[in-house]
Amino acid sequence: MFTIWNNNVERLFNHSLENCMIREQTRDANLFFENLRMNLVDKGDTFEFIAELPGVTEEDILLSVLDDTLTLKASRKIERDDEDNAHLTERKSFSIQKNIPLPASVSTDNVSATFTSGILRVILPRAAESTPRRIPINAY
Amino acid sequence: MSKNTTQNRHTSKFESTDKEVTDMSENNLLNDDAPNFETTGKEIAINKVILKVRPTVDIEEAKDSYALSLDMPGIDPQNIEVHLNNEILSIEAKCEIDGLMPRLYTRKFRVMRGLDADSISARYHNGVLALRLAKPSRVAPQQIKINA
Fold first, then answer.
1. In this complex, is the C-beta atom of B37 within 8 Å of any C-beta atom belonging to chain A?
2. Which pLDDT band, with edges at 50, 70 and 90, does A127 fall under?
3. The predicted structure's pLDDT at residue A28
4. ipTM of this complex prediction, to 2 decimal places
5. Given this model, what pLDDT does residue B36 score?
6. Cβ contacts (< 8 Å) between B32 and chain A: which residues?
7. Are A58 and A115 in contact (CB under 8 A)?
8. Cβ atoms within 10 A of the Cβ of B41, count?
9. Position A136 pLDDT exceeds 60
10. Nearest-by-CA chain B residue for A47
11. B61 CA: distance to closest CA in chain A (Å)
C-alpha cells in the first residue's frame, strides 16, 4: 500500500505537474514585471533615470553611483493576513538589484533623487570631464 | 506586443477567474470581469499611441468589506476615475510621466448586487490604489404569501 502511494507521489513530482506549476509561477511573475518600467534619458547636461516602483517605500530603495554605473536596489513585501480571504493575488513581493550603465561618467556629488507616487526619478549631472570639449586647432 | 502572445499569456492564468465570472452567485464574490481582456492592447489614435494596461490587483475579503489594491504608479490622484455602474466597478487612470510612454490603466470588476457607490472609499499612496468596498447589508428574504 505504502509503495503504491509512494510511487504515485514520485510519479506526480517527476512528471509534468511540478514543471507546470513552476512555469505558471514564472509566467505570472513575468506578467507582473513586464508592467514595471525603467528608462534612462539623456537630457544633455544630465541623465535622468526613471523607474516604476509601486508599493515600495523610500526606506526600501537604495541607490548608489560609481563612475558610470548606477545601482538600484529596491524591494517590497506584500503581506497578506490570511490567504484564505484572498480572492486574487496578482501583486508580488520583489527584491531587485539593477546595475544601470550610464553612457558617460557623472558628477557623483550632485546626483539627486525623488520618489513620488511610486515613481523613482534620479537626476545625474554629467561629469565636467565627460562633456565633449571642443579642441582648438592651431594653424602654423 | 502581438495579439498572439497576449492570448497565450492569458489562457493559463486567468482561466480560473473566467470560470468564476460565469458562476455569478449574488451572495459574495467579487469577480474579475474577464471579457474586458480583449480591450488590452494598443489603441492608436491620431498621432498618439496609448497603451492600455491592466494593473495587477489583490482582492482580500474582510468580514464586512472587500479591499482591493492595484499597482498603478505615476498617477495624479485627481485623475483616477472610479465608477460603479450596473454592478461593474471600473477603474481608469492615465499615467503621464516625463520619460515614460503614456499609459492608461484600466480594469473592470463585476461586483455583488446591492453595492452602494457611496460605500466605496479610495486612497492612493506610493503608486498603489487602495479601494475599500463595504459589503451591502443583507436583505432578509421576504416571504410571499399565497392566497388560496
1. no
2. confident
3. 57
4. 0.70
5. 39
6. 88
7. yes
8. 14
9. yes
10. B99
11. 5
